[in-house]
Amino acid sequence: MTLFVEVALPVRVNTPFTYQLSTDEPLDAGTRVLVPFNAKQLVGIVLCCKNEIDFDPKKVKPVTKVLDTTPALSADMLELARWVSQYYHYRLGECLSLMLPKGLRGDNPAQKSTVSVTQLTDKGKLVHPNQLAKKPKQQAWLSQLNSQAAISSKQATSLELSPSSRNTLIKQGLVVKTDLPIPILHNQATDPNALELNTEQQTVLDNIALDAGFQCHLIFGVTGSGKTEVFLQLMQQVLDQNKQVLILVPEISLIDQTIKRLKARFDTTFALLHSGLNDTQRNDAWLDARSGDARIVLGTRSSVFCTLPDLGLIIVDEEHDGAYKQNDTLRYHGRDVAIVRAQKQNIPVVLASATPSLESLHNALNNRFVLHRLTQRAANAQMPFIEMVNLKQHEPVDGISQPLHSRIQQHLEHNKQVLLFLNRRGFAPTVMCTECGWQAVCHQCDARLTLHKNQLICHHCNQSQPILRQCKSCSSHSLTAIGNGTVRSEMYLETHFPNTHIIRLDKDSTQTKDALKTQLEIISNGEPCIIIGTQMLAKGHHFDQVTLVGVLDCDSGLFSADFKGEERTLQLLTQVAGRSGRAKDLGEVLIQTYHPTHPLFQAIENNQYEFYAQQLLDARHDMLLPPFNFSALIQADHQYAYTAESALIALKQIPLPPQVDCIGPMPAFMAKLANRYRFHLVLKSQHRSQLHMAITILQNALQKQSKVRWFIDVDPNEL
DNA sequence: AGCACGCCGACT
DNA sequence: GTCGGCGTGCTC
C-alpha cells in the first residue's frame, strides 16, 4: 500500500499538501522533508502520515528527500505551532518554518558543525614525548596531546605549536587530523555556592512548587531585590531533577550578564540563542538544546520555540519588556507563547519583573497567576531618593539644568558614577528655520529628520541626507537645531567635565561588534564617569558604582496618544531609578520635567509603582482597553493612501459577529512610512472567540485581494 | 509568495 | 495581427 504524508510548507496558503513516500516506513510528525512545489524544491514539515487521499491521485508528487532521522520539531512544538498559527492568524507552514533555526530552513542535514582537530593515532599513543627530545617542536605537540585529547588549529596557534612539525608527525603516522563536532558549551562553576536568601526570597522559593504541573508565577520584586538569586536556586532544583531550564530575556544585551551569573553558579552545559550568532552557531546551539545535551537554554524571544526534550521550567525575565513582542512577520508575544507552552507541557513558568506589565499584574491580582512579592532590596541596599527638577524654573542648556549639573559635579567629586538617561539619539530631533518656521522632514515618511554629527537621518526609514545650509522654503541661513539628543548632551558634558570619562550608550555608539561589551566593562571598573544613553540603559544592567541617575526628558511619554504610553513611562522611570544605589551607597535620582505635578511623578517619588499601575488599570477598565477587552489590528498599506484606505473601507462592509466592534479605518500614527501609506482597522471584543471569528472572516477577504499589502496583529502593542 | 493563464489596449 | 498590461487562481 502506498503511504502519503501531509506536509506544511512555508507558503502563503493555509492548507497542507500531500506527497507520496517511496517506502512504506511511516515518518514521524515534525520531520523535515524536501518536496517539489511548483517549479521549486521546498522544505516542509510532516504533519501526519495517511493511507488514502481525497483528491486526484495523478497530481500527487513524491517526496524528494527525507531530511531528518529525528524529527526537527517535537510533537509538543508542533502542537504549540498549531496554537500560535490559530491565535496570531498566521499560516501554519510559515510558523513552523520560523520555529526552526535559519540553518535548518534549507535542505541541510540537522548536524552540528565540525572543527578540524589533531589527535594521536594508536601508534602515536605508544610514543613517549621524551623519545622526541631531539625534536623539541614535535615533542611539544606530543606532550600537549598527552594532556589534551584533541587540539584545534586555533588552539595550536595560541599554544605556539608549529603546524609544519604537525605535518611531519602526520607523515610518521603518529598524529592524525580529524573533523569533530563543535563541543557543547560546558562550564566549570567558579562560585557554585548559593547565596543566603532573606526571608522574603526564601518564601518565594518555597512557594514555587516544581512538581505541581502547570502554574504561572509572577515574581514582582523591586529593583535590586535579588530576583535572580531566587531563580538560580529554583533552577538548581530543576537541574537536580534532571530537567532542562529555558530562560528568556528581552534582548541580546542582557544575555552577557545573565550568562556570567549562570556560568559562575552552575557546573553544566548551556545553549545560547540570540540574534548575535551566525547561522552555524545558532544551528549548533539549537541542536544542543534539541538533543537535550544543553541543560540550560538562555535566549531571546524566539528561543521559546526551541525543541527541548526534558523541559522542566521556563523563566521569563523582565516580562514587562516590549521587546518580547515581535513586530514583523509572525507577530507573537514571547511571554504569552511561553505561558501557553508551559501549559501545554504541564510545567511551571516564572515571570519576573520589578515593573510587571499591567496584563500580568491584572492576571496576578485575579489569581490566574500566583503572585510573589519581593519588597526589600537585598544586601541592605536602600531605595534611592527621588527628586523632581522643574524645568520651567531651571531652563536646561543642551538638555541639562543647573541643579542637575551641580549634582553631577558633587557625585563625581565623591568618586562615584553618574548615569543620564535620554531616550533620543543623535544631536537634535529637529532642524528648523527661525525665519519662516520650516522644518527638515523626510521625503519618505511623516517624520522630522534628526540632526546627527555629519548628516540628517530619518529614524524611521534610515534614509540620510547631507546637512542643509539654507532653508528649503525661504532660503535664509537661519537654520537652528531644536531640542536635544544624546550626542548634544554628550558634547555639553565633554565641555563642562573635561577630565571625566563620558560614555555614550545608544544604538549609534554600540553598532560595532563588542562595542557595548567594552563600554560596559569600562563602567564596571568603577572609575568615576558619566554614562549617557537611551533606553538600553534601563534594561536590568548592574551598575554598582552609580549613585546618581538623571532623567533628562521623559515628558513626551506622559501625554502619548498610545494607550500603553503611560505604562511604559512608569516602567522606564522605575527601572532607570533602580539603576541607582545598587550597592552600599544611597542613590539619588533627579527627574527633569516641565510637568512636575503630574501624578505619575508623585508615584515614582514615593516608590508607588503598584499603586499607580492599579490606577492605570482602573482607567483601562473604564475605557474598555486591554486587559479588559481583547483587540486586534489590521493594517493595510500601499503607495497610494486612497488605495490603502479603500481596501479597509471595503473590508468594513463585511458583517461581523455581533459582539465585535470594528473601528476605522484610520491613518496609522505615522501614516506615511518609507513611501507607503498605512491605514488601520481595529477590532475589539469582550469575547476572545468572537474576536478570532471576526479576524478569520476579514482575513479570508484580504487573501482574495492582491492590491494592498496587509498584516494582522493580535494583542497589538500600540492602538 | 511565485508563476501561468487569460482577456483587453497600443504598437511594428 | 502581436506584445505586454496586470486581474485571477493554483500550487500536492
Any overview of this molecule?
- By secondary structure, the protein is α/β, with parallel strands linked by helices.
- The chain folds into five domains: 4-104, 3-Layer(aba) Sandwich (GIY-YIG endonuclease); 114-181, no CATH class; 199-379, Rossmann fold; 381-428 and 483-619, Rossmann fold, CATH 3.40.50.300; 630-714, Alpha-Beta Plaits, CATH 3.30.70.360.
- It has 21 helices and 32 strands.
- The chain has an eight-stranded mixed sheet with strand order 10-13-14-12-15-16-11-17, sandwiched between helices. A six-stranded mixed sheet has the order 5-2-1-4-3-6. A six-stranded parallel sheet has the order 18-28-27-19-26-25, sandwiched between helices.
- β30 and β31 form a beta hairpin.
- α8 packs parallel to α9.
- The radius of gyration is 29 Å and the shape is globular.
Explain the layout of strands and helices:
Blueprint lengths: L3 E5 L8 E4 L11 E6 L2 E11 L10 E2 L2 E2 L8 H13 L4 H8 L2 H4 L8 E7 L1 H4 L10 H12 L3 E2 H6 L4 H9 L3 E7 L3 E2 L12 H9 L7 E7 L5 H14 L3 E5 L4 H13 L3 E5 L5 H13 L4 E4 L11 E7 L16 H12 L2 E6 L4 H8 L4 E5 L10 E6 L11 H12 L3 E6 L7 E4 L16 E2 L3 E3 L6 E3 L12 E4 L3 H11 L4 E5 L9 H10 L4 E5 L12 E8 L11 H14 L9 E6 L5 H7 L3 H14 L7 E9 L2 H12 L7 E14 L2 E10 L2 H16 L5 E6 L5
The protein binds a DNA duplex (12 and 12 nucleotides) through strand 1, strand 2 and strand 3.
